[in-house]
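re: ur msg from earlier - yeah i can do the pyridoxal-5'-phosphate complex, just paste it... oh wait u already did. ok heres what im feeding in:
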Amino acid sequence: MIPLSKPYITQTEIDTVIDVLKSDRLSMGKYTELFEKEISKIAKTKYSIVVNSGTSALHLILKSLGIQQGDYMIVPSFTFVASANVALFEKATPIFVDIDPKTYNVDPNALEDLLKKIEQGRMHISGQRVRIDKVRFFMPVDVFGQPVDYDAVEPIVCKWNLKMIEDSCEALGSEYKGKPCGSFGEAGAFAFYPNKQITTGEGGIIVTDNEEIARMCKSMRNQGRGEDEAWLNHVRLGYNYRIDELSAALGYAQLTHLEDILYKRDNVAKRYSQMLSEYDWVEPPYIANYATKIGWFVYVIKLDEKINRDRIIDYMSSHGVQVRNYFSPVHLQPFYKQLFGYTEGMLPVTEKISKSTLAIPFYTTMTIQEQQTVVEILKEAVERVG
Ligand SMILES: Cc1ncc(COP(=O)(O)O)c(C=O)c1O
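and the outut:
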């Protein structure tokens, strides 16, 4: 089976984790701090606060910005469910915005139209009119490692006074016009599940230049302890979102060869795009000219609309190639439909794109032969069952 993803673990990672095991410090030790320092260098932000998942990172950012019941947060539906769920955690409501059909990221025109519609009192969720003054947050997602067009969304964010949180969980190492993803907005988050560019097993991190956000996130990840971190002194509601030291050590070791990892992933992506260029029934990922660097997360292709994507998935899976539909829209997830009564037709571009996109195996150590096998099986699938 050629897997969809595979972590890249070298002897450096193994030695570094063993170093922790031989120490007495299994939580909040030197590697937690080292990892945070390295991430700050990559994101070019003043502060980094590592936590136990990307979801925890996004949740703490929103909490530190004072999200509360009755607030609304604009977010794309073409993303992982956690991007929207974090608003629900705080009894706020996500409002979904449609995407650009080429980049799969938030479409700035759709964002502007949506805000105008809300301003004119024409937007209702669960029978309630959405008030523009309650639309306080905007969470763009750098989908698959592709940066959002930040120059295009910035004037809209300013005009409507939105607090922007960058869900960069899939975009470690990506750059928009030379500026690192994660550094746009009030704060950003990266995630380190094993399918990501680098992994900590489970883990995520908040990056920000805002001292207050950093201070709040640091306290809330650690049971709401005060700045002195005194063990039984809790100054606010907090969580146990700490990362353990073994995971931080793994992440730190991974970062020692981040450039090599990104370079190798870029090569795999380029080889796929080259191999697929001879077929007119498939579109490789589109790379906008403002994406000056891409930290590739997954490699997602778009099949011709006439092809039955789901049959392709079944065929490839039963022929030794793991593939997945990426993404299934959040607004059409069963519990979103149940909560808000959403139905198909609400976000035409998101829905159309999500029916024909497909993530194919993609990992740092992928060989040309493995890629050729994937492309051959894909071609065979299209010919036989497409
Ligand atoms: C866009 C996006 N947001 C949030 C997350 C949540 O990260 P985690 O799974 O580490 O909680 C992910 C993870 O896959 C993601 O892809």
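cool cool. Residues 53-55, 79-80, 82-83, 141, 167, 169-170, 191, 193, 204 surround pyridoxal-5'-phosphate (CB under 6 Å). ping me if u need the other ligands too
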